[in-house]
Each structure stands twice: as C-alpha cells, then as structure tokens.
Amino acid sequence: MFKKWVLLPYVVLGICLAIGLLIGMAPDLLGDVIPKHGVIGRMLASANQRKIEDSQHTVMVVPDYVRRVVTLGAGTVDLVSVAGEPYIVATDGSPYSSSAVINGRVQPTVESIQSYEPDVVVAPDTTPPGLVASLRAAGIPVFIYTMKDSLKDISLNTKQVAKLFNSTSAESSINSSVMNVKKQVEPHKNDVKPVIVLYNPTHGLYRSGVLRDMIEMIHGIDGAGNLKIIERGKDPNVLSDVWDYRASSPTFNMQENMGTKADLIRINPDVIFVPTRYIDKLPDYKEDLNAVIKDPELQAVTAIKKGYVYPIHEMHIMSYSSWMYFGMQQMSKWLYGDWSYDNFVKYQSVPAN
C-alpha cells in the first residue's frame, strides 16, 4: 500500500507531462482545427507571440504559430503558399498560379475579412490605405509587401513573407531555380546573346523590369527594353535609354506597359516566348502560338523564320512570386535544355567570334 502512494505522484507527473506535450504539439498536429476556436484554441494561438516587420517597416505582433491567413491582391496566394498552403483560409478574387484550393472568399471590407478570424492579412502596397488602416484599427495585423519592378525585390518579398511562418522553403525554391538556370546557361556564356521578347497576340508585347532581369539571367537581350512609352501611346520613332521604363514605372504593373505588334516587327527578335495557359494543357495555347507563327505580317521576323517560338505559362510570368523564377527556368530550358517537344524547332545558340 505504501509503495502505491509513493508511485502516485510520479504517475500524475507523467500524465501531466503527456498532456503538456500533446497541447504543445497540437497546432502542428491539428493544423487549422485548433487555433482560434474555443477557449483552449485561443489560449494556444496567443500564448506565444512575436514581432515581425513588413516591407513598409510597419512592426506588428503575430502568433508564433500563424495558422489563419487572409490574402489580398494578385499573386499574394503564391507568395504565401510557398510557405504552406494550409495557412490560407480565405482570399479575394485575385488570380494566382498556386494549386492551392481555397474555399473562403472575402470582400474588401473589415467585416468580411474579420469573419475569417485571421492571424494576419497579407496584401500588396496597392491595397487601399483606408482598408489597411481600418483592419489594423480592428486589431488585425496587416503585412504589406511592396511590388517593385525587379526580380531581386520579388526574391526579397518572398523571403520576407515566409518569415511569417518561420519557413525557408521559399528561399530553397528560388535558389533551386536559379541554380538550374545557371547550369543551363553556363555552357553558352560565350555565345551570342539572342534578342528575346514575350508576345501574345491578344495582350501585346510584355515589358517590365522583372522580365528584363529574367531575360538577362538566361543570357539574352531584352528586345522590348528600348521601347519608349509616352502618354499618347507608343512612339514609333524614338528609342529611349534601356532603363527608361523601369525609372518611369518603378512598381510592378506589366499590363500597363504592353507594346504592340508594330513594336515586335521593329525589334525583330531572335526568340519569341508566348505567354499562354501552356502548363494547364488547354487547347488555346496552340491557338496563341499559331496566331503568332502564322501571322502574315510577322513572316519576316527572325524568330518566326527560324521557328524559335515557344510557349510559357502566363500565370507564372504575371505572378510576382517565386513562380516567376520557375518561369525563367522554363525559358532557359527552351533555349539551352536537353529536351524538346514535337513540332518545336530547338533553339541553336551561336558561339561568339
């Protein structure tokens, strides 16, 4: 009898340790079930907090285990999903490339967003300041990232957003794509650089500092970089400094900087990438390609004559996330990779003299 009473405290202590361990692991085991639901869930979610700074240097307090995220703006889902898709409980109607299935949809109102009880809202700097201020006044942290027009800033934003989740997967994904591109390009570093453009007959000629960075990383020349955009439209006679469009449009807004078919003809590129719904394997990607390849007005263009016209996934190009690095990797494979597809002429790199 005495021995039982001696062992009892140890048994109770063991049970308490087991319960404590279970509670401590609950957020990882049960994901989105526990946080913010019920008394215990709220205690767990708020027990440990930390400070984090967004791209506008606003410091906010978030839980150690960020489990409920609402995203706003095009491509924001992509920025967040590289750190783990289960974090996103709702988003607005903006497009994204990720395969994440998000059932919740929010309106740009405090009430709608608040109904999902987010730990944090992630949004671009294009979000109305009034909405951001109202959300913060309601006690909801809002992480703002700045959409600057460079590949470097995409990398910085991706890594910074990943800090919300103490994740390094985003950085690993970017580094992997960069390494794969360098591996493809390295044997051709002394070859003549091809003049490259991105053109879709429906949308026009794509132009941005991000694309310029991508094209230069795959050992190419951005053919659309010299086009000058003026208020009344395209100036057919004036070629600006190559950095003019980045200086005049420092933020990422590719859709406002589109060139025309006439610009494409004047550039006469060696390679044309056609942004289309390529990876989705939808039939319209062939229609987009044929609209370029068979266009009577483009038959004198070098890329058309040689057959150097390749599809790339448009959502990767427009994503403003690590998906753009994946798009760049696909571009380098078309140029220098060891694989090709039927009915596509493999690009032949030319050694420099």
UniProtKB/TrEMBL annotation:
Q: Which InterPro entries match?
A: ABC_Transporter_SBP (IPR050902), ABC_transptr_periplasmic_BD (IPR002491)
Signal sequence, renumbered to the chain: none
Per its UniProt record, what PROSITE patterns does this chain match? FE_B12_PBP
List residues of the Fe/B12 periplasmic-binding domain: 57-339
Q: Which family does it belong to?
A: Belongs to the bacterial solute-binding protein 8 family.
The molecule here is called Fe/B12 periplasmic-binding domain-containing protein
The organism of origin for this protein: Veillonella tobetsuensis
